[in-house]
Design brief:
It comes from Kibdelosporangium banguiense. This protein has about 260 residues and is an alpha/beta fold. It has two domains: about 5-40 and about 180-250, HAD superfamily/HAD-like (Rossmann fold, 3-Layer(aba) Sandwich), CATH 3.40.50; about 70-175, 3-Layer(aba) Sandwich (Rossmann fold), CATH 3.40.50. The chain has helices at about 25-30, 50-55, 70-80, 95-100, 125-135, 160-170, 180-190, 205-215, 230-235; strands at about 5-10, 15, 20, 35-40, 65-70, 85-90, 105, 115, 140, 150, 155, 175, 200-205, 220-225, 240-245. The strands form four sheets. It has a six-stranded parallel β-sheet, sandwiched between helices. A five-stranded parallel β-sheet has the order 7-6-8-9-12, with helices on both faces. It has a two-stranded antiparallel sheet with strand order 2-3.
């Protein structure tokens, strides 16, 4: 059986803007064996073009078409639910571009949805507007449930934390599209043209990557170059199919990762 690969980006391919050793050789092996892959990220700030440029600065050449974000997954979901709809968006170019590309109108006047994504400049005015629109009947969608994000100075409040604020104010829970929702995995599989039976998810987090892969019916590999370690992994009631130190351990085994 030939495997396809879905893999998280931060903590798997790169770590604090530095290439994880062996990743370039691993991706070269995938290409040499004509193995299909997508790089996944819950971060909705950037477009695939932005992320390709970011990876290129570390020495990785990943085409835009091989990058799948929670913003793209959110846009696909909304297009399937209400084609040609409207949304009030809190987010950046990754999210607004994805919604424009499916023909959505971005507005603060009676939108179908309030869509919350990642941004480094959450506005109290925009959050207040979102609360009032949800109270008035707009459906509440969020790209991902991550409560914090990293920065050089320490943790930053992220989509999940701001979503909790809006939920507390309105009494309405958001629908999160990104990992660990298996919906994101299934949309990535469709984009890749692959099936869960022969696709592998590589991630560094038990609570998002491994859980999402498991619930979407994928085999999973946990790498120890990011968030989860062997000790914290044991605290979860589910297990990855395999645990490796880093993605470099898969070099030479891309065709048979469990051999």
């Amino acid at each position: 059986m030939t495997w396809n690969y879905l893999m998280d980006m931060d903590g798997v391919l790169v770590h604090e803007e530095h290439l994880v050793p062996g990743v370039d050789e691993f991706l070269a092996e995938l290409r040499a064996n004509e193995i299909k892959f997508h790089v996944l990220t819950n971060n909705s700030i950037f477009t695939p073009r932005d992320l390709r440029a970011r990876l290129a600065r570390t020495g990785l050449d990943v085409p835009e078409t091989s990058i799948w974000t929670s913003a793209l997954a959110t846009a696909k979901f909304l297009d399937s639910q209400r084609p040609g709809g409207s949304a009030f968006v809190i987010g950046e170019a990754g999210l607004t571009t994805a919604l424009h590309e499916i023909g959505y109108v971005l507005t603060d006047r009676d939108p179908d949805y309030v869509v919350l994504g990642e941004t480094r400049t959450y506005s109290f005015t925009a959050i207040t507007k979102a609360i009032r629109l949800v109270e008035e009947g707009a459906k509440f969608i969020a790209t991902n449930p991550d409560a914090t994000g990293p920065s050089r100075e320490g943790s930053l409040p992220a989509t999940g934390a701001v979503a909790a604020l809006i939920e507390r104010a309105t009494g309405f829970k958001p629908y999160f599209v990104g990992k660990p929702n298996p919906l994101m995995m299934r949309s990535a599989l469709r984009s890749l043209g692959a099936h869960s039976e022969n696709t592998l998810m590589i991630g560094d987090r038990m609570d998002t990557d491994v859980r999402a892969g498991l619930e979407a019916g994928l085999a999973t590999i946990l790498v120890l170059t990011g968030i989860s370690n062997e000790h914290t992994a044991e605290q979860f009631p589910y297990r990855p199919t395999r645990v490796v130190n880093s993605i470099a351990d898969l070099i030479g085994h891309t065709l048979q990762p469990f051999g």
